[in-house]
Amino acid sequence: MTLLLKVDALNPDREVIRRAADVILKGGLVAFPTETVYGLGASTYNDEAIRRIYVVKNRPMDNPSIIHISSLNQLHEVAEDVPEELEEKLKIVWPGPLTIILRKSSRISAVASCGLNTVAVRMPAHPVALTLISESTPISAPSANISGKPSPTRAEHVIRDLWGKIDLIIDGGESFFGVESTIIDYTRKPPVLYRPGPFTVEELRRIFGEVKVPEQALGLGQFKEALAPGMKYRHYAPDKPLILTECGELDGLVKLTLDLATDEVKKGKKVVVLCSSETCGSYAKVGFRIIEVGSRLNLYTVAKNLFHSLRLIDSMDVDLAIAEGYPEVGVGLAVMNRLRKASGYKMVKCTA
Ligand code: TXA
Ligand code: MG
User: Fold this and answer.
1) 65, 146, 254, 262: which has the highest count of C-beta atoms within 10 A?
2) Number of domains in the chain
3) For 127-154, how does the pLDDT look when each residue is reduced to its tens digit (9 = 90+)?
4) Are residues 258 and 197 in the same domain?
5) Are residue 143 and residue 203 in the same domain, yes or no?
6) Is 146 in the pocket of ligand 1 (CB under 6 A)?
7) Looking at residue 217, what is its pLDDT?
8) Within a domain: 236
């Protein structure tokens, strides 16, 4: 049986969070909001509970979860050999949507680390998540979706995927950023970006200096070896097919998208276009169904609505979705990484 508790994201009722913390401490599974997406959490020190996460998510057993902490003391509990200079930097960037891969401490079991000698750690910038951890223990949590589906950014997404399978869902409204945390591997020199997220490459380089950005982290290089065990799996995808259009120039992008949509309609397909506030009118006025994802003037709005938009595709009476691409700057890098994966790498580019 699943219990649903509503809280105010910015000022959560401590009694409600204590109830949830109690569920974690007793070995239960709690879905909770973070600033990125909802997580499905269990105590990092309870192997049985962590195994249950894999069962309910249908997650491959070799894909480790991020350990969520609420203090730097807990960092030393879960990780070893944390460089001093890194700790100073973490005081600046945490809490925040940045996950760091470090050597694991001996307290972390083979189940919690999936047998690796490293752990991914982050301190979430969300009052609900932070209070939940500080009232319980470090929490191992992947995103609270069925494996392969878009990550949940609202409690309703968690309810759809996991109702009846977990103990508690804390509804704290919409996640602030809407895409998962940035991940860097700090056991490598220079640090390597594994997953782009709300903490941008530009910000990373300003704080950490040189950071390597391999092709795979962009959502390209899909034929190359996975950077980390979990990255070889299909991610974020709606059930219906999605094609991504890419063009450096906006008029060209709209033309490319319109031509493609028109071709598909001629083949008898029902099409929906995922577009921006600046471009949606061009499709709507010729009769296409649209999902407005956000504004090109602020790509954080696109990030925030992206996974909800991907989930909407499956609830609509359409056969195919076509999504416009975005410039790969700032959080646009994370948006494009998720869209490429969601499309199963079906990408169409303009010739110009
Ligand atoms: O924003 C987020 O990161 C959200 C919220 C809930 O915190 N969590 C999240 O978890 O997106 P998940 O499990 O969906 O993605 C975690 C990624 C996986 O691709 C996994 O392979 C990678 O982190 N990962 C975890 N531990 C790792 C390790 N030791 N080495 C390399 N990659 C690791
Ligand atoms: Mg996930």
Assistant:
1) 65
2) 2
3) 999 999 999 999 999 999 999 999 999 9
4) no
5) yes
6) no
7) 87
8) no
